[in-house]
Design goal:
The complex is a heterodimer. Chain A is of the alpha/beta class. Chain A has 17 helices and 11 strands. Classes of the chains: A alpha/beta, B alpha/beta.
């Protein structure tokens, strides 16, 4: 390790640092060439590792989380960073059956996890296609949320909705299980508002010490239509069978999903002013489906959603989970300079070659290297990535997953410093 | 042997496969022979998976077909299934991680390649692995995981096996989408992979099975 490394940011005022970092990151996201490659840290459970608290406490004590985050930011001096990606409040209030959280379904030091289930059965496709919203209210919610079981006893939603004659049906909502459900929803809303307020406070507090929040995280979260059907409705086993047994219905369902996801993202962008949308992709990577299946069930719908988002002035960026090495040529079809991608385990150098002109790219540092590598290995990897991916801008140095749990702080520091050293344009 | 049944399962025609099974049973076919056909079909499916012709959806559908056929056939069986020759493997997703897809695929592929596989499920604590090594005496322990947290759990599991004095008795492989040589080194496992075929070739290499 170069012992003589002097942080180029040393001695600058907080305001100057904030302005320089903000510009550096925005330049990269807009595929311009910044003064040097920006580095973004997604801390995740590193907050607990380094702060000496349980993961459960991180969620329950936002003030403590913020304090730890500030200390980590000042120690490592990255260009941008964020703490936890999502919070359990609403899931716990509603009795969400598809997630497990530290202290709720897991030990206090567990990792948040998704536990897919087949909430939508094969025979539900017709109801889903016929009237998605009514099916959601009376069939899906009671299955997916333990507090909303009572909703299965509601009359068809239309018999509550359309005007004066149907007001006499309102007492349906007075049944105790439904009252409980409505209370749970209200609690979930409250929990989410509190999280949002906490996030706003954190953004402000971090800005005060010179660290901008990653703007790309401010937009809507939408999914590839296939993943939307897979993750929270059919589950992976269910949807993989659908590919063979009911392909037409699966395609029709995706068409519906695409429509309401697009409407949602466009409206949210108008309301908040955020020009971003985030798509965490799950089942499109190499290995889950064949290329002909990908070409029929995954890519056209995802591409169409992304292109329409772009047409509406939104920059969609994807978490390309897993390996996408066999699919990079498809991604090159996306509108040039209008999207972004975070790559987990793809060959990042190949990603740079194939997609360097298409999208802004994030990634480069395998999480495993920060867990079990040496300072020399980390510096060597950082140097290679800076040299090969940095060219011309549009690259942000991150780990493969925006999470640093189990990483060695000494290696994180070496990585941040090396990015500043080798990432100069 | 029914070529038609083998073909129906291997070609993903699950409805036809179930109809054929019912026909065969009503004609008095030997239930063991039907299970033998299932195994032949699964070998074809496994091979096509290895060759990149089949993917997860085909493994899952074939698995479902097999479960349905077993449901029809098993009540009629007098003896248990033939013994496996490849060697014994215990497999599980490590503590703190509940991802099961990769583990199930590896289990499936080891099984069709003749290994006797005991699946300990997900979120398996190191002490469960240790206990099962003592009771079942496998040649191979396969640790699966997807979360970055799993890397630490894998290391803890290997450590626990070592502390129990069993490390020399088993070969340990780790696998999952985020596993690489670095993690293998960190966890002190004997081998690693990111796909089921690697698991099979490691297992064959370690046991000398063909």
């Amino acid at each position: 390790m170069s012992q003589t490394f002097i942080d180029p940011d040393a001695g600058k005022s907080t305001e100057q640092l904030f302005a320089e970092r903000s510009k550096r990151i925005m330049d990269a996201f807009q595929m311009k060439q910044p003064d040097r490659i920006p580095i973004m840290l997604g801390l995740g459970y590193l907050l607990a590792d380094m702060g000496g608290v349980t993961r459960q406490e991180l969620y329950e004590n936002p003030a403590k989380s913020l304090e730890i985050q500030k200390k980590i930011a000042l120690d490592f001096q990255p260009d941008t960073l964020f703490g936890l990606f999502s919070y359990p409040g609403a899931s716990i209030a509603l009795g969400d059956q598809m997630t497990k959280w530290p202290g709720h379904g897991l030990g206090p030091n567990g990792s948040f996890q998704f536990a897919e289930q087949e909430f939508m059965k094969p025979e539900d496709y017709d109801a889903f296609l016929d009237d998605t919203a009514d099916w959601a209210i009376r069939t899906y919610l009671p299955r997916a949320f333990s507090t909303l079981k009572g909703f299965s006893a509601l009359p068809p939603f239309q018999m509550l909705a359309f005007g004066h004659y149907y007001l006499t049906n309102l007492p349906a909502f007075a049944a105790p299980p439904i009252v409980e459900g409505l209370k749970a929803i209200s609690k979930g809303i409250q929990a989410t508002l509190e999280v949002n307020a906490g996030v706003m406070e954190t953004i402000k507090a971090m800005a005060e010490i010179g660290f901008p929040f990653p703007a790309i995280l401010t937009g809507a979260l939408v999914e590839a239509p296939f993943d939307f059907m897979s993750d929270t409705l059919r589950g992976m086993r269910g949807i993989m069978v659908d590919i063979h047994r009911r392909p037409e219905k699966l395609l029709a369902a995706q068409e519906k999903v695409l429509r309401f996801e697009l409407e949602f993202a466009v409206n949210l962008s108008k309301a908040t002013g955020s020009p971003y949308a985030f798509l965490p992709l799950h089942r499109g990577s190499d290995g889950f489906m064949s290329l002909p299946q990908f070409e029929k069930f995954y890519w056209p719908q995802l591409k169409s959603l992304m292109v329409q988002l772009v047409d509406n002035g939104i920059t969609p960026w994807c978490f390309y989970e897993g390996v996408w090495d066999q699919r990079l040529e498809y991604l090159a079809e996306l509108p040039k300079g209008k999207t972004g991608g975070l790559f987990q385990s793809s060959d990042i150098f190949k990603v740079g070659e194939v997609l360097g002109d298409t999208m802004f790219i994030m990634g480069g540092m395998p999480n495993s290297l920060l867990q079990g590598g040496t300072v020399e290995q980390v510096r060597e990897r950082t140097k290679q990535v800076c040299e090969k991916l940095g060219k011309g801008g549009g690259f942000v140095m991150t780990t493969g997953v925006l999470e640093l749990e189990g990483s060695d702080p000494k290696l994180i520091k070496a990585w941040v410093d090396a990015t500043k050293e080798f990432g100069v344009y | 042997m029914s070529e038609k049944l083998i073909k129906a399962i291997a070609e993903m025609d699950d409805e036809q496969a179930i109809t054929l099974t019912k026909e065969l049973l009503s004609q008095g076919s030997d239930p063991m022979e039907i299970l033998g056909d299932c195994r032949s079909a699964m070998e074809i499916v496994g091979k096509r998976f290895e060759e990149g012709e089949y993917f997860i959806s085909e493994l899952i559908l074939a698995g479902e077909t097999l479960t349905a056929i077993s449901g029809l056939v098993k009540p009629l069986l007098k003896t248990s299934q033939a013994e496996k020759k490849g060697g014994k493997v215990i497999i599980g997703t490590v503590k703190g991680d509940i991802h099961d897809i990769a583990k199930d695929i590896v289990t499936f592929m080891l099984d069709v390649n003749g290994f006797e596989v005991k699946d300990l499920g997900v979120d398996v604590a190191p002490e469960i692995f240790v206990e099962t090594i003592k009771t079942d005496q496998p040649e191979i322990v396969a640790l699966s995981g997807f979360l970055t947290l799993a890397h630490t759990s894998m290391k803890e599991t290997v450590d626990a096996i070592k502390t129990a004095g069993l490390r020399e008795k088993v070969k340990i492989m780790i696998g999952g989408g985020t596993i690489d040589a670095q993690v293998c080194n960190f966890a002190k496992a004997d081998g690693w992979g990111t796909d089921a075929m690697t698991a099979v070739s490691l297992a064959k290499q370690w046991t000398g099975a063909n």
